[in-house]
Amino acid sequence: MDTKPKDIIVLGAIQAGIKKFDKIQKMTQIGPQELNSILEQLEKSVFIRVVEKNGLLGNKIEIMVTGKGSKEVDKQVHDLQTKWNLMSTLYKTQDKEGLKQFMDDNKSFFPMMIFFGVMNIEMFSMMFGMIDMKMSNYVPTENMPEGEDSSRNESEFYEDVGS
Question: How would residue 72 be classed by pLDDT, with cut points 50, 70 and 90?
Answer without folding.
Answer: very high
